[in-house]
Amino acid sequence: MASEKAAKAENAAASVAAKAAGKVAPLQSPFPLATLRHSVSHLMASAVEALFPGAQFGFGPAIEHGFYYDFELPEPLEERALERIENEMRRIAKKAGAMVCSEYTREEAAARLEKRGQKYKLEAVQSIPAGEKITFYAHAGWEDLCEGPHIDRFDRPFFFKLQRVAGAYWRGDEKNPMLQRVYGTAFWTKEDLAQHLAWLEEVERCDHRHLGTELDLFSHHQEAGGGFIFWHPKLGAVRREMEKFWWDLHQARGYMPVYTPHVARETLFAVSGHLENYGDLMYAPMAIDELPYRVKPMNCPGHILIYQNRGRSYRELPLRWAELGTVYRYERSGVLHGMLRVRGFTQDDSHIFCTPEQLPGEIAGVLELVRTLLSTYGFEFTAYLATRPKEKSIGTEEVWERAIAALKEGAAKAGIPLELDEGGGAFYGPKIDFKMKDALGREWQTSTVQCDFNLPERFELSFTDKDGAKKRPIMVHRAIYGSLERFTGVLIEHYGGKFPFWLAPTQVALIPIREAHGEYCRELAARLGAEGLRVTCMDDAAHMNKKIKEAAHDKVPFLLIAGEREVAERKVTVRQRDLEQQESVPFEEFLERARQLARTRSLVL
RNA sequence: GCCAGAGUAGCUCAACGGUAGAGCACCGCUUUCGUAAAGCGGGGGUUACGGGUUCAAAUCCCGUCUCUGGCCCCA
């Protein structure tokens, strides 16, 4: 078992490394890539001023894969203007020569910006703390307030591309005016740029929205409104496997299933505090028998009602209750995105009610569960301990300390290292969030474990302890998939639509060479089906070339081809996804292999 | 929600003021074939929806819905 896990992890790591290779840029030249990109953002700004006189400038930093610069322009910027800007950048770069840094006093700086009418830059210069240096960087007669650092000159070889235009609020605050942002990227070599662009193409190819259409996995509909996912049968099959796996893990760890309604009286959410703290994200009330009801945005109040239904003894704790609970949240239209950001989604939600003493053990249990689940899908992950927020939060300092200590202790027990996310906790308690890395090297937030001091208080939860005293239980919220929709969307991209055998919507396709071999194939299909495998028998009149093409298009893991030779020897010719070479094996041997792959939830295929 | 762009057959796209088209998919007939598209034929669109301009609108204008890229927020 241990070696099997190691093999899984190794396989996943190799695939991650291979795919991520595209985005790792080697360090070269005397300046880091981020410095080059920052300088190219200046170059772009100077080009924009040349082409759009009267432009106001915001900020223009380097970011993870490139840079951006925010502008306020007299006219809307269209994507097709990017080429013009690029050409102007090349023209300026040719004659630019050196990049020169000058230091000024606050007054001098303000005067220089005033002269050019740069209102955003003026605001920026005013917010530079006293005592800090105020510098400008200039090239080709164009200067910008900037702390640097920058490359020394523009006549070095470098390669860039402007990518897209977008809107962005000044200083990220939606009360401020919206500026136009141009994103781009830059590299020291042509090859690195080409490699990065190839990686972006690969990301595009793996986009779950495209694959979702191509593989007939899911859809959304204008008739239903944005943010609601319709799972097609093929993705339904994947989800059933995910749910089965999920439940197997939970059952083995002492969780019990609960089921709660989707709608409840508004008063329930008033008691829970959701109305007050979460109201903007909740759907409007509906009147039932003249009383207001709400669609649930979270599952916790429902689980609490079950807890409260009778007195609880310390003997029962910890209680671990789990539900695949579908919740609905009003998300602003602009944030919706495929399966990754939706308005209705199913959380693999669970609430653990326990004593303070039990907390570290419970946390360790959850973390182990997270690790087992994520690694089965081939994800690497990082765990972050999120501590008390600076602004409002509830609970005494002592309670927070104890909970954080319990989270740390639990993580140590489970052998999971924690990064620190200072002040990132919820107002009601500290938490551990997981970021998992997919095959393309991108990070996603899914799993979370949260301590909650708020709800037990609000609902006055209690248990009777050994000494007969009523005490307050601690509540742990945790979700591992987070949202089935989001996790599945990430999975589609992670696998590029090539689901491993255990998850594949169709696991095996049988292809008879002639009609006469159809009966043999149907028999084998029935055998495989009886094993619980998802099989299709392609015994219609089409030519076999076409069937192979179709099955390959659907990314079916195994094609079994049977003609005269196979029928005679009770064999099948196995054509494995993405493998040129094929082998002819006894059917029983294939069946055993398929069983094994499914049972172990192998990532190998 | 905000800024910008877009919505034509199931999918990918063409037509960009003058009769809405192609490839793939789908259906039918023929073909029974040894490894990634067999041949022939056929059906399918109130051009997202609603209004307007015009002799004439997929095409121009306005509104709504949905989507895309971002901002903000988040599972």
Keywords, separated by commas or semicolons:
605 residues, alpha+beta, Threonyl-tRNA Synthetase, Chain A, domain 2, BirA Bifunctional Protein, domain 2, 4 domains, eight-stranded mixed sheet, five-stranded antiparallel sheet, 28 strands, 38% helix, disordered N terminus, RNA-binding
- How large is the radius of gyration? 29 Å
The rough form would be described as globular
Here the CATH topology of the largest domain equals: BirA Bifunctional Protein, domain 2
Number of helices: 19
Distance between the termini: 18 Å
Uncertain regions spanning at least 5 consecutive residues:
1-27
CATH architectural name of the largest domain = 2-Layer Sandwich
Protein described:
This protein has 605 residues and is of the alpha+beta class. The protein folds into four domains: 33-188, Threonyl-trna Synthetase, Chain A, domain 2 (Threonyl-tRNA Synthetase, Chain A, domain 2), CATH 3.30.980; 214-260 and 299-495, BirA Bifunctional Protein, domain 2, CATH 3.30.930; 262-295, no CATH class; 508-599, Anticodon-binding domain (Rossmann fold, 3-Layer(aba) Sandwich). It has 19 helices and 28 strands. Strand 27 (571-576) and strand 28 form a beta hairpin. Helix 12 (359-376) crosses helix 13 (397-414). The chain is globular, with a radius of gyration of 29 Å. The protein binds one RNA strand of 75 nucleotides through strand 7, strand 8, helix 7, strand 20 and strand 23.
